Amino acid sequence: MSYLNGFLEYLYSFGNWLGKIMLLHLLWLVFSLLGLGIFGVVPATLATVYIIHKWFVQGFDIPIIRQFWHFYRTNFLKANGFGLIWGSIGLFLYADYYISKQFIQSFYFHSFLIILIVLFIVSLIHFQTVYIRYDLKFFQYFKQALFIGLARPVESIAMIITLLPLYYLYNILPIFTVFMGASLTLYPIVWFSYRACILIEDKRKRIQNESVSAL
Questions:
Q1: List of long-range contacts for 132-135, beta carbons under 8 Å, 24+ apart
Q2: What is the pTM (predicted TM-score) of this model?
Q3: Ramachandran region of residue 37, left (φ > 0), alpha (ψ -120 to 50) or beta?
Q4: Which of 97, 129, 139, 166 is a good FRET partner for 179, with 20 to 30 A between their CA atoms?
Q5: Chunked in runs of 10, what are the mean pLDDT values of the chain (215 residues)?
Q6: Which H or E element spans position 58?
Q7: Where are the domains of the chain?
């Protein structure tokens, strides 16, 4: 009987989690459209990351809609500023990659561009959690995101690997994309990035404590 109760409790917890994931995706979709798409998608994405990060820190019992709306509203302009910078860098790297592939055709230059693109992707996926977790100056967010990506390569690689089964899942069952695509994709990304931040913070605290003890 205890096994049955445990299974039912697990089933309830999973259903509760799934419902919240679907609600969060719906909020992402609605608020992306609310910002006319191009101006709404970045604030909505960061608001989604904000809620997921809160789940890891505080648990699932938080007012999702109210906190999502508050973050979206108060960070709308700043989020679009970051989105403009990231988008510009991405377009610049894509243009360079295309030109290198079609015209320059230099192995060394092409390899250098690929390294830059990888660093760009790693920094971008960590940036979301860095923006939520830390209170930094505008351009320090970019530096901190790159630092975490390089300092914790295991988590950075794990994030990218995790996206592969999701990619195949969305292709095989597109209904997952429709009802939970944004939040389900961001969930493992935020988890690994959150873990990377925690490990770096713990290491920094240990170093500080050792320095104090040495004095």
A1: 132/46, 132/49, 132/50, 132/53, 133/53, 133/194, 133/197
A2: 0.91
A3: left
A4: 129
A5: 68 90 97 89 97 95 95 96 96 91 83 93 95 94 95 92 92 93 96 96 87 67
A6: helix 41-58
A7: 2-214
